[in-house]
Each structure stands twice: as C-alpha cells, then as structure tokens.
Amino acid sequence: MMKELKEKIVQRIKANFADAAEKNDFNYNRLDFTVKKETIPSILFYLKDEMGFIHLSDANCVDWLEEGELELVFIVWSPKDKIKIFVRTRLDRDNPVMDNLDMIWPQLNTYEREFREMFGVQVTGLEAPDEFILEDWQGPPPFRRDFDTAAYAEKTFWERPGREDAQDVRETIANRDGEEIPDFAKKYSR
Amino acid sequence: MVNDKNSQKIVDFIQNWARKHSIWVLAYGTGCGAIEIPPTMTSRYDAERLGVRGAATPRQADVLLITGYLTVKTLKRVIRVYEQMQDPKYVIGFGSCTINGGMYYDSYNTIKVLDKYLPVDVYINGCMPRPEAVLSGFARLQKRIAEGRANGAQQYKDNLEWYRANQKKIIPNWIMPEYNW
Amino acid sequence: MEKVLLDILGAIVTFLVAFVVGMTYGGLNRKITARVQNRKGPPWYQNFIDAYKLSSKKSAIHHGVMHHLGPAFLMVTSVMTLLIVPVLSHNNWFPNLNFQGDLIFLLYIMTFGPLGMALGAGQTGNPNSAIGVTRGLSMMVGFEIPWVLALVALMIQYHTTSITGLMAVQAHSGTWLMFSSPFAFIAAVMALFGMFRYSPFDIVGAPTELASGPIAETGGKYLFVMMSSGSVFTFAKLTLYVDLFLGGADNLFILIIKTFALYLIPLLYSLVSPRYRTEQAIRWFWGWPSFFGLLAILQAIIF
Amino acid sequence: MEMIHIIFLIFLGGAVLTYFSGKISKVLQDIFFLASVLVPAYLFFAYVGAGREATLSLGGITLIWGVNHFSWLFSLIVLGLGSMAAIYAIGYMKGKKRKGYFYFNFILSIMAMMGILLSIDLISFFIFWEIMTWSSYLVTIYNGHDIQRIGIKYFVFSAIGAYAMLMAIVIVHHLTGSFLMSSMINFYPNMSLSMQIWIPVMFLLAFGVKAAMMPLHVWAPDAYSNAPMAYTSIFSGALSKMGIYGMVIVLVTMINQIPQGFWFREVIAWLGGITAAIGTLWAIKQDDAKKLLAYSSVAQLGYIITGIAIGTELGMLAGLFLAVMHALFKGTLFMVTGAIEKQTGTTNFNEVTGLIRKMPWTFIAALLSIIALAGIPPLGGFVGKWMLYESLITSNHYLLVIVIFFSSTAAFLYCYKFLFGFFLGQEEKEWAHVKEAPAVMVVPMLIMAVMMFVLGTFPGIILKPINSGLMDLGFVDSFKHLWESSVILNVWGNHVVLQPILYWIIGIFVFFMIFLTWKGFKTTRYVSTKDISSSGEVPADDENLTFSVGFMQPFMRAVAPAMRRQIDKYYNGIADGLESLFEFIRRIYTGNGQTYTIYVIVFVVIVLLFKNILF
C-alpha cells in the first residue's frame, strides 16, 4: 500500500521534473529528491499545490565542507498521504545564493533569515531585518564548519585562567573508591 | 556632628544592617538557572525569612541576580539594567556560566567571565546551584554588606572606563545612554 | 497660635502612631501570608527594615516635576484622611479637623492622592505605569459604588454627614452600626477589598505582568514616601471603618484590636483568591456589594 | 439714552467695525474686536447695577430691558468668560483665515447673550435667542467641513427648540394679553392644567436644547468640537448657561407655584442625572480632546440641571455655583485644547504626547482646571459638588446621589486621559519642536485657573451674588450669618470653615515636597523618558512607547452593555422615517400632468360611486 503510493509519487515527480535525482530506498514513509537550485521553487510549489504536501516540517542547511558545497534541505509533509519528502539542493559554498521562497510558506522567512545569518547564504529578495539572533556580529557565519568557535571565543571573550593548583583529582577519587578509570576516558585527563 | 567619624560609623552600621536584612532581588532569568529561583522563594526554602524578596523593576531592586549564561545580546540588557538600579547595588553571579563560561566555554556568543563586564559581589558556583547554594550565596552577600565590603558599585564607578572598554570590545555598536555619576 | 502649635504637635504624634501601626500591619500581613503558605516568613518588623533601607538609598531618579511630586500628593491624601478621621473617641492628643459633612469631603480627598500619583506615574513615560494607572482608576470607579451606597445609607438613616455624628449615634444607642445597619456594613467591607488592592483585586500593580505598574519607575526615597503613605492610609481607612461601624475606640489598645480584626477580613480573603481582570473586578463590585448597598438604602428609608 | 442702550450700540457697532476694519489692517481689527468686548464689559460692571431698566419702542411694541441680581450673576459669567475668551481669541486666530467673520459672530453672540439676560419681555428674549442661535451656528460651520452633518444637526435641534418657545410665547400672549415675563409668571397659576404643563414643556424644550439635556444633547459634541476653540470656550462655558438661566426661570418661578410641579422637577432632575452619567461614559470613550471635553460639558451641565431641578435653596446654590465653576474650568480646558491645537496642529490623544516640559504654563492651567472639574478639594469644584450632594441627600433623592456620584467618580477617568494624553507619557521626537503658546493665550488661562483656586478657598465671593440672585427669585435669605467669605453652609451641621483645611492640605504638601526635594538633593537626578526600565531595552529615539490607543479599555469593557444604545441612532431612525414619508408624498405629487388628471378622474369616480353615502 505504502509502497504503491510512494511509487506513484515518484513517478509523478519524475514525469514533471526531469532533473530530480531520486534516492528511494527507505522502507518507511519517506522519499528523497535532489534537484537543481533553479528547480526548487517550482518543485515546492508543485508539491504544495498539486500533490497535497501542504506542511513544511523543516528547512535546513548542511555544510559539506569537503565538497565545497552547502546543501539546503526542505522537508514537506502530506497529512493526507502521511508521507514526508526531503527536497535537497546544493549551493556553491563560496558564493551561496538562493531565491526568496517565503511566498510558498510564510514561515520560510524565519528559516531564510537563519540561513543568511548562520551560513552566509545570500537570499535574494528577502524582506526582513538584518539581524536575526546575533546582535553586533562581526565574525564569519558561525555555523559553517570552518569556523572555529573555540578560537573565536578565546579571541573575543575573556577567559578565566585556571587555578594553578588545579589538578586531575579523578585518579585520587578512583583509587579511594577502588575503581578503575577505563582507557577511553584517560585521554580526557589533563 | 554629622561629619564626625564615629557617628558616621554608627550610621553606617545601622544602614548596613538594614541593607543586609532587606534584599530586593531582580532576577534576570536569562539562562536555565531561572528555574532555581521559584523553589528558593517559595515554601520549601523560603528566602523571604532572610528579608530576600523579589523586585519587579531595576529602580526598586538592590541585587541583580544573573542566573546563568549571558550571550552578547543579553549582556547588553544586563548592563542597561544594572545602570538603571539605584545605589547601593550588588550583583550576584549565579552558576558556572557566569564564572568561567561553564559548559558554554567555547561558545561563539556567550561571555565567560562576568566580572570583566560588571562588578560582581558574590559568585554562586554550581551547574545548577541548588537552592541551598543560593541561600548560602545570599548569606555571603549579607555578610559582605554588614562588613561594608560589598562595594561593587563603587568599583564600577571608579573603573568605569575599564569596564566600558571591555563592554565595547564585544558590543561594537554601542547605543546606550551614558552612565553619569 | 498655641492651639495651632498644639495641633501640629498632635498631628505629628498621630502620624507617627499611624506609621508604626500601619507598618506593623504590613509586616504582619507578610507573616500571616507566609504562615498560611507553610513558610516561616519574615519577622513582623520586616517592613520597617525595608522602609529604612529605601530611605537610605544613596541615589534616586525622577522623570520630571510631576513624577517628583507624585509621592507628596499621595502623602497629602493619607495624612488628610488621618487627620479628619477621629482616632480615639475622647482624647486630646489626637487632634482632628473633622467638621459637619466630612464624609463627603473624605470621599473626594481620598481620590486626590491617587490622581496625583497617577500624574507622576504618567510622566515616567513607562507604558506599564500608564496601564496600571488606568486599571487602578477603573477599579476605583468600581468599588466606590458600594462604598458610597453604604455611606449614603448611613447618612439617610442617622441624618448626619459627619463621622463624629455617627459615632455619637453609636455611643448614644449603645449598638454598633455594624449591627444596626448590617447591609451597609457588608457593602462597605466588600468595598474595602478594593481599597486595599489585595488579591483578587491586585491587577493594578501586577509585578510580573506590569512590572509593578504605577510604581515601576519609582525607587529609593520616593518609594519610601509611598510606602509610608500606604501604611498611614491603611491605618486611616481601618480607623474610619472602626469609627463608622464598630463604635470607635476609647483607647489605643481597643482601637488596635478592632482595626486588626477588620484588617484580617481582606487579608484572609486575599490569601485564597486568584486574580480578577479589571472588568471582572468592576462587575464584581457592581454585583453583590452594590446589591447589599441598595438593601442598606432600602433599610434606611423604611426604618 | 440709558447705559444699556450704549452697551448694545457698542456691541453692534463694534461688530460691524471689526468686520470691515479687517480690510484695512489686521492689528486694527484685533484692537476693535477687543474694545468691542472689553469696553461694554467695563461699562456694564461699572455703571449698570441691579434695578436699571431701559426701553426701546419698535413698531408699536415696547421692548424692555433690565437688570436684576439674578441676571447680573449670569452677566458675570458671560462678560467675564467673554473677555477672557476674547483676549485668548486674538492669539488663537492669529494667522487664520476669515477672522472678520469669526470676530463678528463672536461679538454678536456675546451681545445676544447679554440681551437674553437683560430681556424683561418675551419678544426681545426670543429675538436675542435667535441671534444667539444664528451666530453660534455660523461659528460652528466656520471650518467649513461636515456642514451637512454637524451644522444641520445643531440647527435643526435649535430650530425645534426655538419654535416651541415661539409657540409658547404666542399662547402666553393670547392668554394674558402681554409679552411681559412677569405677567406670564403671575398668570401661570390661573391657567388650565394642560396649559400649565405644555407651556413649561415648550420652554424647556428650547432651554434643554441649549443646555444639552439628555435626549436633546446629540448636537453638542459635534458642534462643540467643530467650532474654533476660542469660541467653544464661551459656547460651552457661557452659551449653554443660557439654557440653565431659562430653566431656572421656568422651573423655579413658574412651576413652583403649582403642586404638580414636584413631579415636573423630579423628571428634570433625573434627566440631569442620566445626562451626567451618559455624558461621562461617552467622554471616557473619546480619543479626541475636543470630543472628550464636549461630552464632559454635557455631563457637567447634567449636574447643574440636577441641582436647579431639585429646587431647594441648597440645590439652587449648588447648581448656580457649579455653573460659574463650569464656565471657568471648561472655558480654560477648551482654551488649553486650542493652545495645543495651535502649537501642534492636532488634538488627538493618540498623536500628541509629552508636552509637559514644553508647555508648562498650559499644563498648570490644565491641571488646576482638571482638579476643579473632578471636584477634588482644594479647588472650587469641590464646593459645588459638596453642596450638590448635601442637597440631594436632604431632599431624599437617594438613588440620584448614586448616579451623580458614579458619574463624578468616572469623570476621573477622562480627566486623567486628558492630562495624560496631552502632557504626560513619552516625550516624542516628533513634538520636540513644540514651544509654549504665546502669552496672549496663556495669561487668560492662568487668570481663570487662579480664579478657580480663589473660589475654592473663598467660595463666599461668588455665593454672595448667587444668594442675592436667589432672593430676586423669591427665595428666603436664610444664610446671612454665613457670608464670611470662607465659610460654606451645611444643612445638618452649622458651617464649614474652608481655609484651615486648605492650609493643612498645602502645609502637608509643602512639607513632603521639601522632604523629597531636600533629602539627597544632589543625588537625585533627572532622566529622560527614554530612560525607562523596559526589560533592559534601550528605546530608540524614533521608537514610540506611549500607551494611548484603547486607553480605558478595561473600563469600557465593563460598561459595554450600557454603551450599546445610542440616542443618535433613534434620531436617525426618526429622520429616515420622515424621509421615506416625504418620499411617499413626493411620489403622489409627481409634477406630471397626466398623473394629476388620473387623480382627478379617480376622485370624480369615487365621488360618483359613493355620492349616496357621502351626501
């Protein structure tokens, strides 16, 4: 039943969007399509208006540092068919540009502001205040993987120096209680 | 007579005693620590028997209780609130986050050491500190007030430039009114 | 001239007594509340410490002349009410300015302070203050109706508009008006709930919702004056009720017993009550309390 | 040539001169205008006392004018407020168009009011009444917008009232053969009962319209708020008092003579009470200062009507004292509104805020008049309210006391709204440029504010003329021992000395003022209204934090059931009904010859068919 339904949906989408690369090996109610950046608005519109995927569950950005790309993931859900579809697209990491999509789902506005602030995605045509969560932010987009938060925090914020007599007391405690520290935990000791 | 040192001492003693026993707290519930305040105030631990009582606005409050981590965004508000409070005023840093960043030690947007930005009179350690610890913190503050050592506000006034420089380092877009006394 | 000086001296003594008693009642209020909630609670003198601490604050801010004078307006009301209400029946130490028709005068002077303070709260520019003020004034319109009904009933029944007149009636007949005009008493006590602004009528200064409302911008010495004014006013109101309904008092001890018994009514009611919204509160006052007030007027006309 | 003639001549000539001198020079026009109001006022108080009379023969009818103590009291209101408003108008009208038109009607209004007060015969009374109506109508439509809705409404109500009065005058003349008021009053007990009822009703219709009594008040808010504020202060302060003046004559001198008069007065008293309550509730709802004050005028006139309708000595005293006070404080408040309109260009509470530091003197005037309006003790309003309650309670109007008290307490809400809306709240950047109004406008306001204070302390100053006026109306002078100027009267007790109480209030206030100011004077500092504790947020300069929209929402929600019915709607219903009736009649008279032919034929056929029955 579910399989037939999924098959039917895959067929329909393949018929309409030739570039949709399908990854359909899930044995539960999930489908996955990867499309080109230009196709995103039309496929989302199509899913929402024609196929009953009226609910936007989530929109996310994934940083594929090694491949030099940013991936946008939109998860839509059909209350009628009880199926969720992942729609993915890849953006160039050095110059990530996407179109504003908040006419499809107004809540996308918030997600797009997050993309812009946290990943540095340029959203053309987005109407929103400049600042989203970070105020007075001056560094690089903090959710990119090449952003070193520890180094940034060390550079920006004061750090309290540890006490000079600070020692690793775990061994003492372990010896006192007659326990052994497992090997994997030992590498965390100072 | 009024300028006489001994009589001033007596006045100070009485005033400090009153301040010690009447602590109106403005709990700035930024982080997860805010959840520890209700049990401290209500029937189980009853901080009111020590004269500790909630205040609604900074104009009425004596103590600014900063419960937990401070992001850059909330730090701005905390500084504002602190500057709106009336002298004499005290700050309690609550939880590890205000001491050394706690579990947010490497976060890109939370400060780690509160006393670089505001004069902290008493720190309460723990993540989270239990209400007993909070009460002990209040007791410590009371002791300092009674001894006349809780002079963070004076320190802030004297070293305003240093504090301002620290604050402006992480808040480059500074639009707050000047602190003028 | 000597008489004026004596009057001023007596006024100061009255003020001090009212201040001490009112503050103590405030402290006892906190203590009783704590005990009801199964807490230890602050000591009974906690309010004195708070007041002294507030007065010893080293700095204070104001947003303009009206804000600066708002507490003074409030104090005028409290002290005038205190001076007009006869504290003890036969005593030279507590002077009173009372005159024929002072009940109506009281009704109006009691609104002078809130209005002055409302102006002060308005000038702060804090939206919370203005919201609190509108709520307070609206609620005042609510509880004044049963209160006036009760007073008019008394005026009709005993053909006098003065407090001393009503006290004389009680002294003469030997019964308290509480028993001879029970409906007026009930209506007046229900109006008292509103005057004290304890729960369920405490939406005016809701601390978490409005940041304590009208006094949101007030601290230090201003808050001290307001707090003392509130204490004095508490005492003055309770004494007024005792004079009107409980036959007055001959010495301070009896006065304190009577006022405290009266004070317990709104206090205990507040402990078991949630909070009304403003329009609910107004409708509450125009419901049963006003009904009892009308009954009181009927009683006054018929008997 | 009596002095009264000269006064009227100066008024008339001054009006014409003022109108035409505008063509030559604006300054000359202002001078002429001031002179033609102030000179007659001076002449009147200096040379015309009670008992003076003057006659004028016009085409066989002799018009008689005279002054008694009662009309002298009202002349005080008209000329006193008129002079202040005239000085104010110079500043207010500066730079406005059609000054001549305004000044002309202003002077005519004052002349007409004086004429009404001095008239002894009914003919001149009616003539001046009409002049007053016309001139006030012309000022009402001065702005030129909404003439249809506002002007016509005012005019229709005034016309209905005036023609009812004319009818009554004709009937009286038919019955008595004289136009003299005194003969009407003397003949009144001899009339038949239906005439005894109808003549006062017709007079009261005219007076009730001017005094904005309950079902007849609907014109007032629009007309008051649409006229220029300099005129509205006399419109509400003095012109409406003409209705009160007439009512006193009808209620006291006529109706008192018959036993049925009790019920008559009872109805009027209740109408006054309801007017007060309804007017107050609607005033709270308004967002525009002019509208708010207009409804508040309706409410205040309700108190006055109640006071005089009770008809006891104390009630009369209360009503007339309140009338004087109302002229003072409502005149001032309209002037304040005018000053703010002049300086900021709007009178909407949702737009203007935080003027207290920019217009301090205006604020002081507004504050004092608001305190007087609310009836709070140190000022004069309290004395009037106090006497009103006393009189209501002693005359057994127990429920009316509650109604009056309700409206007087609810009045605090709009009082606060007025002060807060204009003067308090956030100081916005938008109004940073506002300056204090020119001295010509501020000084009259302050003079009147001081008067309110003086009357609160020494009410005897004005109670004395009121008393002699009442003696003219036939009341007994029973208060002779109470006319020390600071003592007011109490029915159940003896008397109340107001000054010591006032000293106490001021003394306590000053003490705590000094306490607050002196203690730690150096550490107390001023911070701007942007520096408020709003959860640590720093409001930007252009960020509007003022709370003014839906200001009294909780209260309005509580009284919502009482506000659902609007009298306006009933009148509109009547108007619609009349319109459809006229429409129907118009259909019959189509103006088409054929239709008329058909009517004639049908008529003839009917006559022929039924001729046996008909003839």
Q: How would you describe the overall organization of this protein?
A:
The complex is a heterotetramer of chains A (190), B (181), C (303) and D (615). Chain A is an alpha/beta fold and 190 residues long. Chain A has helices at 2-16, 40-49, 108-119, 149-156, 170-177, 183-186, and strands at residues 21-22, 30-34, 55-64, 69-78, 83-92, 97-99, 122-124. Chain A has a single domain (2-186), classed as 2-Layer Sandwich (Beta Polymerase, domain 2). Chain A has a 5-stranded mixed sheet with strand order 1-2-5-4-3, with helices on one face. A two-stranded parallel sheet of chain A has the order 6-7. In chain A, helix 3 links the parallel strand 6 (97-99) and strand 7. Chain A is extended, with a radius of gyration of 23 Å. The mean pLDDT of chain A is 83. By secondary structure, chain B is α/β, with parallel strands linked by helices. Chain B has 7 helices and 5 strands, in the order αβαββαβαβααα. The longest helix of chain B has 17 residues, at 5-21. Chain B is globular, with a radius of gyration of 17 Å. The two termini of chain B are 27 Å apart. Chain C is mainly alpha-helical and 303 residues long. The mean pLDDT of chain C is 85. Chain C has one domain (2-302). Chain D has 24 helices and 5 strands. Chain D is globular. Chains in contact: A-B, B-C, B-D, C-D. Chains C and D meet through strand 1, helix 3, helix 4, helix 5 and helix 10 of C and helix 14, helix 15, helix 16, strand 4 and helix 19 of D.
Short description:
The complex is a heterotetramer of chains A (190), B (181), C (303) and D (615). Chain B is of the alpha/beta class and 181 residues long.
SSE topology:
The complex is a heterotetramer of chains A (190), B (181), C (303) and D (615).
Chain A: H1 2-16, E1 21-22, E2 30-34, H2 40-49, E3 55-64, E4 69-78, E5 83-92, E6 97-99, H3 108-119, E7 122-124, H4 149-156, H5 170-177, H6 183-186
Chain B: H1 5-21, E1 23-28, H2 37-41, E2 52-54, E3 63-67, H3 72-84, E4 90-94, H4 96-100, E5 122-124, H5 131-147, H6 152-158, H7 160-170
Parallel strand pairs in B: 1-2, 1-3, 3-4, 4-5
Helix pairs in contact in B: 1-5
Chain D: H1 3-21, H2 26-47, E1 53-58, E2 61-66, H3 69-92, H4 99-118, H5 122-140, H6 147-176, H7 181-187, H8 193-210, H9 219-226, H10 229-254, H11 261-285, H12 289-310, H13 313-344, H14 360-374, H15 380-394, H16 398-423, H17 439-457, H18 460-472, E3 487-489, E4 495-497, H19 498-518, E5 524-526, H20 553-558, H21 560-563, H22 567-588, H23 593-609, H24 611-614
Antiparallel strand pairs in D: 1-2, 3-4
Helix pairs in contact in D: 1-2, 1-4, 2-3, 2-4, 3-4, 3-10, 3-13, 3-17, 3-18, 4-5, 4-10, 5-6, 6-8, 6-9, 8-10, 9-12, 10-12, 10-13, 11-12, 11-16, 12-13, 12-16, 13-14, 13-15, 13-17, 13-18, 14-16, 14-17, 15-17
